[in-house]
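Let's practice the habit of predicting before peeking. Look at the sequence and jot down your guess about where helices and strands might fall. Then scroll down.
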Amino acid sequence: MTEKRIIKKYPNRRLYDTAISKYVTLNDVKQLVIDKEPVKIIDAKTKEDLTRSVLLQVILEQEEEGKPIMSAEMLEQLVRFYGDPFQNNFASYLENSVKLIAEQRAKVRSGIEQVADPFAIMSTLANRNMEVFKDMQEGLFSKITNNPVKPKKKK
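Done guessing? Here is the structure:
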């Protein structure tokens, strides 16, 4: 893995990209992420890692302009998961689901799967997503009941 590109955030909210020695915008940070350039955003003074906070700002800007990904109802549900006993399981499930969708998107774009049948692709994606969800539920059930679930044999 390549080293992360360091971007410093100053008290005046400006972002400074140390790799190119220039001030950058949130849009520039967004483009780095799209280009799969690993970034780490730190407070210029305290060296605190601000990466998550700045990426949330990027998402907020994207949600406010154009076509949002998350509805108000979805955001309400997300808020309700914070502090909930299911928070860790949900976070893991959500992360795995997003990775799965990204993998499927990459396969479609590279032509590995047959693009001629988008329903087959979506069906495969839905089935894999259900497997991830079932695994999450079984893991949660085994934690709650203190009764480990025996691993399934792959077909």
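How did you do? The CA atoms of residues 138 and 150 lie 9 Å apart.
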